[in-house]
């Protein structure tokens, strides 16, 4: 798999979406990544910053023909400790099934629960990634297992009609048990 390397910095630009911190990607690299990707994951990449922060993300168009990567507060905190303005960035196409790492706990449940897997697979890729992100975020394996079970149970109970507010309520109820 081809790796694309460049230097860039984190830029703070106001956005109505709330994601203000971005890393701009040279257009020639963005175009090569998109051209070499599968149609399903054309803009999904794995970003490695300074070989210390690695995450799945999307090449996001800015509306002017350029692309950028969003970077969250958690990753920025790690990078800020380096006290560098120019960062070494490495990008590769994301060839994972869901465009995000599949937590082992969810992978096991998807193998065991045919009905839950069917409802999960019918969700849009963005909804799948959101659920996988929620499940994979906790450090505790026990919490990841509880979230995965809750998410699949919820999807089965609503026949795959996902409402994130309801799912969040389901997570809260599971924590009370």
Task: Give a structural overview.
By secondary structure, the protein is of the alpha+beta class. Helix content is 44%, strand content 21%. It is built from 7 helices and 8 strands. β6 (60-61) and β7 form a beta hairpin.
In short:
The protein is α+β, with helices and mostly antiparallel strands and 177 residues long.
Write the layout of secondary structure elements.
Elements: E1 4-8, E2 10-12, E3 21-25, H1 27-36, E4 44-49, E5 53-58, E6 60-61, E7 67-70, H2 73-80, E8 87-93, H3 104-112, H4 114-122, H5 125-136, H6 141-157, H7 164-176
Antiparallel strand pairs: 1-8, 2-3, 3-7, 4-5, 4-8, 6-7
Helix pairs in contact: 3-4, 3-6, 4-6, 5-6, 6-7
As a percent range, the share of strand residues is: 15-25%
Number of strands: 8
Helix content: 40-55%
Rg from C-alpha positions? 18 Å
How does the helix and strand content classify structurally?
Answer: alpha+beta
Low-pLDDT segments: none
Provide key terms for this protein:
4-stranded antiparallel β-sheet; single chain; 8 strands; alpha+beta
């Amino acid at each position: 798999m081809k790796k694309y390397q460049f230097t860039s910095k984190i830029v703070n630009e106001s956005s109505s979406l709330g994601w203000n911190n971005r890393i701009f990607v040279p257009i020639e690299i963005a175009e090569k990544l998109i051209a070499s990707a599968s149609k399903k994951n054309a803009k999904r990449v794995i970003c490695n910053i300074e070989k210390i922060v690695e995450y799945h993300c999307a090449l996001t168009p800015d509306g002017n023909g350029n692309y950028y990567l969003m970077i969250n507060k958690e990753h920025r905190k790690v990078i800020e400790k380096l006290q560098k303005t120019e960062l070494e960035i490495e990008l590769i196409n994301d060839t994972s099934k869901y465009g995000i790492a599949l937590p082992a706990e969810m992978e096991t449940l998807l193998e065991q629960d045919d009905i839950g897997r069917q409802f999960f697979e019918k969700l849009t890729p963005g909804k799948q990634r959101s659920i996988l992100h929620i499940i994979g975020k906790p450090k505790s394996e026990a919490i990841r297992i509880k979230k995965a079970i809750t998410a699949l149970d919820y999807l089965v109970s609503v026949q795959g009609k996902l409402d994130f507010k309801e799912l969040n309520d389901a997570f809260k109820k599971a924590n009370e048990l």
